[in-house]
Every structure is written in structure tokens, then in C-alpha cells.
């Protein structure tokens, strides 16, 4: 059977940007920024994204396109030995991330509906509303199931018709919604304090934990370190410039995260709410903010619709990594792979759905969902990133050169190579060990 490819360069860019842009940009980035002191965190994040992030993304595209294979197959074909383990780690990370990602994706569906059914009212205590909902086992499992079903449906349809077709509609819609919300947010009276929190750095706020949080966020947000971009890269035609693609996708992802901050912080400050509220920042503070605005139900529904769209286009890339592996390696038809693996991921997500108040399920002193997120974002993805960078920089040098210059000269090739060889692995290792408190 002929392997699927993207229909066009723009289609691929939108799909890859769709993978990158997700809950990571609109939910995780603002709450981490709020909890880590604002502008200084943003600066460190930007620095990591445009050095290490963009370089690892290019490395993943190279590995994917040069083999047209899933992450495990790609490492096996290019070098073999122990390298396919990196691909395995990626497939495992995809499985783990999607299991809890879908739970939060389910929350967004619930909140679209709730916007019209009582959430948005001056008398609603949004904290108890949120805690009541996430502590309701059957409901959270139901919405997790709905979100997984949507994800499975798109992947089931395949690369061109499913993933690319949907991203081409959903990504521009998301951008438009975000612009509308920014206009609303920055014109609120008192928005200025939020903007200055967001843009005036205070470097005393930077600690080794902040650095690991920024690094984990860079990998999570750009969908790096687990082979999602290897998989999407494996469907790129030879006529697309990889450096240009990595730059475009990194830019789009960062722009959306940065813009999301302009929705969250002005609104939060305009209504005198604490920016460090943590993971609840989006689900607790924004609804109470919307309740105080004219037309609040509509703004709220729009905002959570946006979050749902962003989450869906990311979730399909997570599922696609595992599906690509099973179709390539085990010869399963796409339909069967999407259904069976989707169902398995749904099951693994159940403890995450239940661990937020319904049933106490703790691992390493954290709730199950938080433990899964920590394991994936702060451990598996940075580790994967180290090996992917080393692989591109040392093991497949010639292929890397050929792939990155296929569509004309790549002026930054040497810089990229040295980032992959030395800078990225070393920086990730140092931040990683420091953040875990190991030195
Ligand atoms: N990048 C996605 C987000 O920001 C999450 C993701 C991580 C998707 C890893 C694929 C792979 O929400």
C-alpha cells in the first residue's frame, strides 16, 4: 500500500501547527507564566524555544522525512542498535500524554455547554463549580469519552482527508477567535496592569524549577521529544523546505501562546484576580470574568470552543504517533489501529479523570493526572529531545545535510548542527538535573 502524504505544503504546516498549538498554549502556558512570575518566565521560554526548540523540531522533520516511517521504524532504519528505544519512548509518551490530555479536552466540551447552563452567572462560585465538576467521576469520564471519540474519528479518516482537512478549517477559525477575544480583553478597564505583569520582567523570579518548567513547556508546546514531528515529517513530500517549515511552525506556535497571554492576563488583572492561581486559572477565573461581561455566555462559549479546537488538533497528532507505529510495523489497517488504540488510551485515561476529587489516586505524592503530566513533560520529552538532537548532530550528519538543503541553501546549517551536537543536549541535561533537584 502506498504511504499517505500531505496534500500541500500549507496543509502540512497547518497540521503541524495544529499539533503544536493546543492546551499547551492557551491553558498551560498562561498558568505557568502566572505561577512563575510573569515576563521573566516568558523571556526564558522564548529563548529556549528559538534555540533548542526550533532545532529539535528540524531534527525531527529530518528523521521523519528521510525514512517515511514512524519514530520506532525511523531510528531502526537509520541506525538500529539501541536507537529505536528513543522511538519506543516516544510512542509510550504519546500514549501517556493523550490519556490525560483527553481528560482536559473533555473539560473544554463540558465548559462549552456549561457556558449556557449556569456557569456564567454573577451568583455562581466558579471555584466550587470547577471542583464539583472535576470531582464528578461519571461526568468527567463521559466527557473524556466524547473527546476521545472525536480524536479517533479524525485519525480514522486518515492523513489527508482527516487530519489535514480538519486542520485547514479549524486552525484559521482558532486564530480568528483568538483575535476577537484579545480585542475584548485589552479594552477592559484596568487591562494595563495585566499587560505590564506579562511584559515587564523581574529576573529574581528565575529559579532552577522555573527553568525546568520553561523547558518542559517548550517541548510540550512544540510537540517535541516524542516523535510527533517525526511522524508528521514522514508524510512530507521531498519538495518542501524543512528549515522553513520548522521556523514557520515554531513561530506560529509561539505567536499563539504569546497572544493567549493577552487574553488571560489583562482579563485576570482587570477583575483583580491572582495570576498565580495555577491550573485552575483558565477554568476557574475566566468564567467568573466572563460572568461580569455583557454577553458573557457567548464569550465563554467562544473561548472554550477555541480551547477545544486547539486541543483536538493536538490530540490527533498524539494518537497518530501510536497509530503510525502499529500500521507501519504490525501492518494493521488504519481503521482498526485508530479504534483499538484509541480505546486503550481511553481506558488509561480513566484514573486521570477520576483523580481530581472523585477517587484519590496518588502517584509520587501527586494526583494521577499531575503525575502523568510531570512524567511526560518534564522527564520523557526532554530526555527524548536530548537523544533526537544527538542523533541528528552526530549519527546522521550526511542525511541531515542533504535533507535540510534539498530546497536550496540553509545558511544556518552549521549553527543548527552545533546546537544539535552540543548546546541542546548539554543545556537540556543541566536544566533537567537542576530542576529535579539533583545538583
Ligand atoms: N503541543 C501540544 C499542546 O501544546 C501537546 C502535544 C505534546 C501534542 C506532544 C503532541 C505531542 O497542547
TrEMBL record:
Keyword terms, alphabetized: Membrane, Symport, Transmembrane, Transmembrane helix, Transport
Main localisation: membrane
Domain of life: Archaea
Regions that span the bilayer: 12-30, 42-64, 85-109, 129-155, 175-199, 211-235, 247-273, 298-325, 337-354, 374-396, 416-438
Annotated GO MF terms: symporter activity
Topology relative to the membrane: Multi-pass membrane protein
Localization: Membrane
Gene Ontology CC terms: membrane
PROSITE patterns for this protein: NA_NEUROTRAN_SYMP_1 (PS00610), NA_NEUROTRAN_SYMP_3 (PS50267)
UniProt-listed CDD domains: SLC6sbd_Tyt1-Like (cd10336)
InterPro entries: Na/ntran_symport, SNS_sf, YocR/YhdH-like
Family: Belongs to the sodium:neurotransmitter symporter (SNF) (TC 2.A.22) family.
Name recorded for this polypeptide: Transporter
Species this protein is from: Candidatus Methanofastidiosum methylothiophilum
Amino acid at each position: 500500500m502506498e504511504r499517505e502524504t500531505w496534500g500541500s505544503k500549507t496543509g502540512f504546516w497547518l497540521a503541524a501547527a495544529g499539533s503544536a498549538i493546543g492546551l499547551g498554549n492557551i491553558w498551560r502556558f498562561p498558568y505557568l507564566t502566572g505561577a512563575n512570575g510573569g515576563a521573566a518566565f516568558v523571556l526564558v521560554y522564548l529563548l529556549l524555544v528559538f534555540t533548542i526548540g526550533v532545532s529539535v523540531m528540524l531534527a525531527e522533520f529530518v528523521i521523519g522525512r528521510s525514512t517515511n516511517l514512524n519514530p520506532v521504524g525511523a531510528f531502526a532504519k537509520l541506525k538500529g542498535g539501541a536507537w529505536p528505544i528513543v522511538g519506543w519512548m516516544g510512542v509510550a509518551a504519546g500514549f501517556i500524554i493523550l490519556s490525560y490530555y483527553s481528560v482536559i479536552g473533555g473539560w473544554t466540551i463540558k465548559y462549552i455547554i456549561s457556558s449556557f447552563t449556569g456557569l456564567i452567572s454573577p451568583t455562581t462560585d466558579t471555584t466550587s463549580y470547577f471542583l464539583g465538576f472535576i470531582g464528578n467521576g461519571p461526568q468527567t469520564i463521559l466527557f473524556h469519552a466524547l473527546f476521545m471519540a472525536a480524536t479517533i474519528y479524525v485519525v480514522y479518516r486518515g492523513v489527508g482527508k482527516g487530519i489535514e482537512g480538519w486542520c485547514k478549517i479549524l486552525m484559521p477559525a482558532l486564530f480568528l477567535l483568538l483575535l476577537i477575544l484579545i480585542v475584548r480583553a485589552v479594552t477592559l478597564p484596568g487591562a494595563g496592569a495585566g499587560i505590564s505583569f506579562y511584559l515587564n520582567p523581574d529576573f529574581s523570579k528565575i529559579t532552577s524549577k522555573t527553568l525546568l518548567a520553561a523547558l518542559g513547556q517548550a517541548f510540550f508546546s512544540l510537540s517535541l521529544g516524542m516523535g510527533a514531528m517525526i511522524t508528521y515529517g514522514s508524510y512530507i513530500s521531498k519538495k518542501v523546505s524543512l528549515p522553513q517549515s520548522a521556523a514557520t511552525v515554531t513561530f506560529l506556535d509561539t505567536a499563539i501562546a504569546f497572544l493567549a497571554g493577552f487574553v488571560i492576563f489583562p482579563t485576570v488583572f482587570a477583575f483583580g484576580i491572582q495570576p498565580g492561581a495555577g491550573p485552575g486559572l483558565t477554568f476557574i477565573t475566566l468564567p467568573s470574568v466572563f460572568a461580569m461581561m455583557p454577553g458573557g455566555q457567548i464569550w465563554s462559549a467562544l473561548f472554550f470552543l477555541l480551547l477545544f479546537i486547539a486541543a483536538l488538533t493536538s490530540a490527533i497528532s498524539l494518537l497518530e504517533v501510536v497509530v503510525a507505529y502499529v500500521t507501519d510495523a504490525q501492518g494493521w489497517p488504519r481503521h482498526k489501529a485508530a479504534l483499538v488504540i484509541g480505546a486503550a488510551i481511553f481506558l488509561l485515561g480513566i484514573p486521570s479523570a477520576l483523580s481530581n476529587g472523585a477517587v484519590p489516586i496518588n502517584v509520587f505524592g501527586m494526583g494521577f493526572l499531575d503525575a502523568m503530566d510531570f512524567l511526560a513533560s518534564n522527564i520523557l520529552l526532554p530526555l527524548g529531545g536530548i537523544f533526537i538532537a544527538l542523533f541528528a548532530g552526530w549519527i546522521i550528519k550526511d542525511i541531515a545535510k542533504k535533507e535540510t538543503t534539498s530546497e536550496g541553501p540553509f545558511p544556518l546549517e552549521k549553527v543548527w548542527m552545533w546546537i544539535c551536537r552540543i548546546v541542546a543536549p548539554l543545556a537540556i541535561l543541566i536544566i533537567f538535573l537542576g530542576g529535579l533537584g539533583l545538583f
